[in-house]
Amino acid sequence: MTTSTDTTETHYEVAIVGGGPAGLTAALYAARLGHETAVFDRGGGRAAMMTETHNVIGVPESVSGNEFLETAVEQIRSYGADYRREFVTAIDRCDGSFELETTEGTVFAERVVLATGFSDGRPDPPLPRTGRGLHYCLHCDAYVFVDEPVYVMGHGDSAATVAMLMLNFTDDVDLLLRGADPDWSEETDILLENHPVDVVHEDVTGVRNGGDGWLEALEFEDGAVREYTGGFAMYGSEYNNDLAASLGAELADDGSVVVDDHGRTSVEGLFAVGDLTPDHNQIPVAMGQGAKAGIALHKSLREFPKSLAELERHGAVDPQDVPGMAAELRSQASVHSAADDD
Q1: How many beta carbons lie within 10 A of that of residue 28, not counting itself?
Q2: What is the C-alpha to C-alpha distance for residues 19 and 253, in angstroms, rounded to an integer?
Q3: Can you give the residue ranges of the FAD/NAD(P)-binding domain (predicted)?
Q4: Is 129 buried (19+), middle (13-18) or exposed (0-12) by CB count in 10 A?
């Protein structure tokens, strides 16, 4: 971090908006590769809601989302990155860099990474507890429901498809319309009729939980009580793309931010990673995107090697100008190495 004593302006090489797995991984790479980096995180997010961590190799499933993120924050801080619990309200271009307005003031950055994710559409109450009977990610949580009674809430193609997909794990699947009329396609209707999924039209009027907080059953307006271990809500997603749109970044039809293979958007110097982009909404995928963006950031920011054109204009690199990493980050690297030796 660079702070101007004349204007009290704070400058970073890399500012990351969003503190989920993608944003924190991008910060880890940027900091370790020698760039002044800050993460701006308002808190919350899909990963923070996880009661258990699934499909992340090397991480026990007993680790909650908050524990997973807290460990990641400790890691990026150990390499010299700043973690700022602030909400970024606006971003503008300013003399080739970016000006970020936050709930705590204004900062400037040469590169910005958006990792603001999306928000799952939630059905109306009554509902089971999130993570204790209400889930949003089939690829994360389907394994939990092998040979168990499962519901899927929703009335569109995605809900019907997930209900049929769950037949790979259990033979007891209900599709809950909750009083809505189905609006899936004719093809989906034919598929659904030919798969053993029970379609329940009545709305949910109550939830029964066990002593451990897990769902045991749902009550319906016709008086029926149906037992479930858990299930999935499929009501779409809303991408948190306001900052990307305000900067003119290209958006896909569904609202996700269009990026290349290393997270670059259509705006020079602006990157996007994680659930904000079109890909599988999985922690390992998000971490991979953050890593690739971090490497791309480094290549666009690193001091050396100088190009032939730069050498022709300015001459050979003076030994006094190396290393290229900021002194504060080099000092932090020494502290980190000493801690590893203890």
Answers
A1: 22
A2: 25
A3: 12-290
A4: middle
Q: Spell out the alpha helix ranges (H) of 137-264.
A: 138-141, 157-165, 186-193, 242-246
Domain identity same for 185 and 250: no
Token pair of 122 as six digits:
């939630």
Give me the helices (H) in 166-304, please: 186-193, 242-246, 283-301
State the Cα–Cα distance between residues 27 and 202, nearest whole angstrom: 47
| CATH of residue 155 | 3.50.50.60
- pLDDT for 242-286, tens place per residue? 999 999 999 999 999 999 999 999 999 999 999 999 988 999 999
**Domain count for the chain:** 2
Backbone angles phi, psi at 202, to 5 degrees: -70, 150
For CA atoms 77, 78, 81, 82, give the dihedral sign: positive
Q: Evaluate if pTM is beyond 0.85.
A: yes
Region of residue 205 (left: phi > 0; alpha: psi -120 to 50; beta: else):
alpha
Both 173 and 249 in one domain: the answer is no
Question: What type of residue is 331?
Answer: S
As a 3-state breakdown, the chain gives helix, strand, coil percent values, each rounded to 5, of: 30, 25, 45
| Angle at which helices 157-165 and 186-193 cross, to 10° | 30
Domain that holds residue 144: 134-233
Contact predicate 229/135, CB 8 Å: no
**Which among 179, 209, 233 is the end of a domain?**
233
Instruction: Say if residue 228 is in the same domain as residue 248.
Output: no
Which tokens is 124 given?
Answer: 């109306």
